[in-house]
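tool_call predict_complex ligand=manganese (II) ion
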Amino acid sequence: MKHLMPELPYAMDALAPVMSEETLAFHHGKHLRTYIDNLNKLIAGTLYEDMELEEIVCKATGSVYNNAAQAWNHEFFFDSFTSTPQPVSARLAALLGKSFGAFADFQRQLTEAAVGHFGSGWAWLVEDGAGGLTVCTTQNADCPLTTGLRPILTFDVWEHAYYIDYRNRRADYVNGLWNIIDWAKVEQRIG
Ligand code: MN
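tool_result ok
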């Protein structure tokens, strides 16, 4: 199965100034494309050739895993934003409040995890097997699916995600992301 580039659910200039058209042109158009192109080349003629992306992420190692996980992580990341953000619903606020105490505590924890993560990687809101919501980070390409956690929201903190718009100011990038989250989509992901 050939893995295809996902369409963005918004126009390339719709998330500016939080995420500029130039950033999306590089981040989606070049970085993600490279991961998908590499994955397609690496799996040709292997046992991974006919697997769904999620299955490859959970079963592969090495370069196949790195490219598959980066493809999955980026598709999930880009599918988390909107040009017309709406407030968090009462149901989602209650779910987050149950695990974190208050929405503000969840927001602080994910922000601190994203800003404080050393090097390249991802900060996540995940759901564990018991329905609890927690914040964690992963290094490089690593994806929580491999440890049985269900991803609910992620912030990409690789430098390529923010260097065009923010240079080294990762905290400004992370704070900006809060303004473009598609909360309805986030809520749908909770089991
Ligand atoms: Mn990225």
